[in-house]
Amino acid sequence: MSKSNKNGMLIDYEYCTGCFSCTVACCQENGWEAPLSGMKVMEIVQDLPKDKAYLTFLPFPTELCVLCNHRTRQGLDPACVKHCMANCLTYGPLKELAGELEKKPRMVLWSPR
Amino acid sequence: MGKSKTTIVKTTTWSAGPGCHGGCGVLAHIKDNRLVKLEGDPDHPWNQGRLCARALAMTQYIDHHDRLRAPLKRVGKRGEDQFVEISWEEALDTIEKKMNTIREAFGPESMIFSMGTGRDIGPWICMLAYAYGSPNVMFALSGNACYSPRIAALDTIQGDYSVFDAAQWLPGRYDNPEYKVPECMIIWGYNISATCPDNLFGHWIIDLMKKGTKIITIDPRLSWFASRSEHWLPIRPGTDAALALGFLHVIIKEQLYDQTFLETWTDAPRLVRNDTGKLLRESDMTADGSTENFVGFDLQTKTPVIWNTIRQKFSIEDSNIALTGSFDIRLLNGDIIACTTVWDQFKDSCAAYTPETVEKITFVPANDIQKAARFYAKAQPASIHWGVPIDMTPEITPLCHAIAALWALTGNLDVPGGNVFTRAAFNAVAYALPGAEGVIKLKDPAQDKPRIGKDDYGPFNKFIWRCQTDKVIEQIFSEDPYPVKGLWMQTCNPLSGIGLDPKLWQKALEKLDFIVGVDLFMTSSLRYADIILPAATFLEKEGVRSWWVPLQTINKAMTVEGCRPDVEINFELAKRFDPDFKWETLHDLFDEILKPSGMSFEQLAEKGWALPPENHASRPYFRHERGVLRSDGKPGFATPSGKFELYSTLREEWGLKAVPYFKEPPFTPVSRPDLFKTYPLILSTGRRSPAFFHAEHRNIPWLRALDPDPVVEIHPDTAKKNDISNGEWVTVENWMGTARFKAKVTKIVPPWMVMAAHGWWFPEKKEDPLFHTFESNINMLIPMNEQGEDGLGAPIKHLLCRISKETRGSAHV
Q1: Residues B404, B158: contact at Cβ < 8 Å?
Q2: pTM here?
Q3: Which of B59, B690, B701 sits opposite A19 (nearest CB)?
Q4: Is B663 helix (H, G, I), strand (E, B) or coil?
């Protein structure tokens, strides 16, 4: 696979609800024992002006994530993407996903190791 | 040995396992009778391939080394770790013998059949209790304060329960042309991350937000929804009714209500007597007048007009019935009394709740109340989703009444994208729930007579077919009017989860003669049982689910040696207790439950799931107009009056206030300023965790890693004031007791409140037979017996406490 076809994951953190489905889906799929997992979910309480705050969850692919290449080879989505309750994870070619970033705010694009 | 194949079994989640109220379509990958993997079924309309953390952890659950795999018999004292394994035959024979002895000596009502939160246990526990002859089925939470109060409240005033519409009834879901995405949703005391409430899929709300639904959040915590809301109203816990009345005040004052709905579908024009405060009935006016008929006032002829309840019509066609005004009416005895309309009475009940007054009560700024009320009322359609905090306060019915009036008066009842009536799919009802009669019922209505609490509270004689839980505990000690001798306790853990004031429950368990526990893992409560039976997960059983849609079967994917499904255990014993037991096989029973659908269990299992067809009473919309809600087939609602009742006929009958009101609940800074001096923080409990279902799952490694410790959320200012740092162990304390929690210092909670997690025990601490169940159990701080006037609700979300850093040496290890 040439580098330009590299796949990654688009993370729409606006809609991540912190349900941890990705974390456990990864454990089940890849046999990780707790607390290991290819996906962690960070809770971020953002401080805003006037003593306000904003609660964000950010799903974060860890060093263990291999984007479920055994699944994607068969045309399946990675286990976390498949089970995400908020449908806020998208798997695909980085180039295509980068285009999605222009369409909606509050997203990050992740490129695997 | 040949290579064995993995087979995929399609089934439906519904406890035990994920623990929840179920409904997700799943694919169980089974190899050699073992679960290899559980995945969401992409073809299933409910979850559309998605799945929660608890279901995804099923491989760790089903094969867990601590699972009970053989029946146990207690050989030591209650509460000790003294059990021996026995055979199923010996266990069932012992149970049969002991329970027959109790039945003969004290009557069948002396056995209580107790469950934890509903799920796929309700029908089977009723089946066993009723076969044995006892009406005493108990949901073990004080004030029965979860779900059935809300259902009963809505049945009281609108004849049917209703939920937010996410197109769950429609083929093609959101894309179905019948459906409308709500412009606005009020999220009232519900947190998304813990996923699925009340037989709905929580993340449907996220789907709707992506399609443009704007959110109003009512929650003291800065929840996920609160952060993403047009309007966030951080309410003081327990004051929700005042806020709802404030919304109504704005909507009525600014005439933002649906005039047509008000005139056509509510009881607004009926007259209420000023002298008694009760509805004027035809029988008040004429000798042969019916007590069931009500009265309006015709402005044309300036005479009273009878509302004929049977015909669902006023006696004079084309009358111009007054919605508002005061009228002198001559009674049968010649007296002339003043009457006003229900609409005037209702408006009066909201009149005092100006935004400024409501701000003082609720802490929500008046300006925000106004803006949110207008935003909701002007949105078309709009819906409301409420969480369990609605049930977890006394006086829950007036609160539900006020909230229901919001969706009714804004024309959002049973419209696409609004709050729509919900009934069991195809009207296939397994057991008696509020508003529905099931296949499983007492053989003779007379058997219901000794049901505990039945005669104390109106709703328990009309909608709620369980015992009143606080009264049961009282009666265990008082033995009045009859002694309670035995307890059947199935997927129910009062000492760690569902029991408020758990030490009181411990004493109650110690007092009983015979206890059977049915569960999947050893718990502190099971240590009090005489016989323990090992139950099965949803993957090891068959079942049916009609709550609400779709109609589904649970299909057996595998077995675990030594364990039996709840339904099979109860079926076997029901046969033994009742020589006339109606069903030969489980499939006979399932077939009867499914009968209204025209499908047998096998046919439905083959199909997987089914949605009710168009025009069916269990499918929306506009059912009050279509005349499918009432048994007489007339348009209207299934209430005594046929209308959406702004003034509740049944509440009047029960001697309770018939219009919505707010009453300051017990144990708040306002109702108990004396306690507030010593306990200066509002204690709210039971914030949900996506890792756990109530007291379950602390022993599942993947899940425990997500939420390892019992956490109390404390605002940074409050933490500083109390010299508490993030991650430190703290003591949470009030006049009832103490519990230790790990401080999570976070701006999610307001400075005046702390939020403590519930359901904590430590299955890994096996040296204590009770798994340290009283150590971090927030229910130690919550009293029982605080139910509202109608027997419902409990102060679970609003108490008082103080917090302090745990001193060195006091830590429990």
Answers
A1: yes
A2: 0.97
A3: B690
A4: coil
Q: Strands (DSSP E) along B128-170, which ranges?
A: 137-139, 162-164
Cβ–Cβ gap B747/A54 under 8 Å: no
Distance (Å) of CA B773 to CA B20, B64, B507, B544, B777: 22, 21, 14, 34, 6
Residue A81's SS3 state is helix
Tell me the C-alpha distance between B624 and B627, whole Å. Answer: 5
Q: b/e for B51-81, b at 16 or more Cβ within 10 A?
A: bbbbbbbbbbbbebeebbebbbbbeeebbee
DSSP letter string, B372-437: HHHHHHHSSSEEEEE-GGGTSSSSHHHHHHHHHHHHHHTT-BTSTTSEEE--SGGG--SB-BTTB-
User: Over the Cα atoms of chain B, what is R_g?
Assistant: 27
- pLDDT-derived band at A1 (thresholds 50, 70, 90) equals very low
The CA distance from B227 to the nearest CA of chain A, in Å, is 5
Tokens 């073990």 identify what position?
Answer: B140
Number of other residues whose CB lies within 10 A of the CB of residue B254: 13
Q: Cβ separation of A83 and B203 shorter than 8 Å?
A: no
pLDDT, position A90: 98
Residue B497 gets which letter from DSSP? I
Buried/exposed B573-600: b ≥16 CB within 10 Å, e otherwise? bbebbbeebebeebeebbbbbbebbebb
Q: What is the DSSP letter of B2?
A: P
Contact list, A19 vs chain B (CB under 8 Å): 52-53, 192-195, 203, 690
Q: Looking at residues B307-322, what average pLDDT do you find?
A: 90
**Mean of per-residue pLDDT scores for chain B:** 96
Q: Determine if the peptide bond prior to B617 is cis (ω within 30°).
A: no
* Whether the Cβ atoms of residue B399 and residue B241 lie closer than 8 Å to each other: yes
- φ/ψ of residue B637, rounded to 5: -110, 160
Which amino acid would we find at residue B409? L
Q: Name the residue of chain B whose CA is nearest to A32's CA.
A: B702
CATH code, domain with A51: 3.30.70.20
Contact B382, B185 (CB under 8 A): yes
Give the span between the Cα atoms of B513 and B451, in whole angstroms. Answer: 20
| Cα–Cα dist B378/B92, whole Å | 60
Strands A39-48, A52-61: pairing is: antiparallel
Whether this model's ipTM surpasses 0.95 comes out as: yes
CA distance B773 to B760: 7
Number of domains in chain A: 1
Q: Which domain holds residue A105?
A: 3-110
Dist. CA B517–CA B185, nearest whole Å = 42
Pairing of strands B231-233, B214-218: parallel
Portion 666-705 of B in contact with A at CB < 8 A: 690-691, 701-705
CA B641 – CA B654 distance, rounded (Å)? 16
State the Cα–Cα distance between residues B182 and B191, nearest whole angstrom: 19
* DSSP element (H, E) containing A69: helix A69-72
User: Facing residues of B522 across strands?
Assistant: none
Taking Cα atoms as reference points, which of B744, B694, B807 lies closest to residue B146?
A: B694
| Structural domains of chain B, with CATH | 72-145+440-533+565-597 (3.40.50.740), 148-259+348-425 (3.40.228.10), 673-805 (2.40.40.20)
CA separation for the pair B304, B142 (Å, rounded)? 46
Q: Cα(B713)–Cα(B634) distance, rounded to whole angstroms?
A: 52
Per-residue 3-state assignment (H helix, E strand, C coil) for B555-595: CCCCCCCCCECHHHHHHHHHHHHCCCCCCCCHHHHHHHHHH
Given CA atoms B150, B154, B160, B161 in this order, what sign does their dihedral have? negative
Rounded CA gap, B538 and B299, in Å?
62
Does B376 have pLDDT greater than 60?
yes
pLDDT in tens, B410-423: 999 999 999 999 99
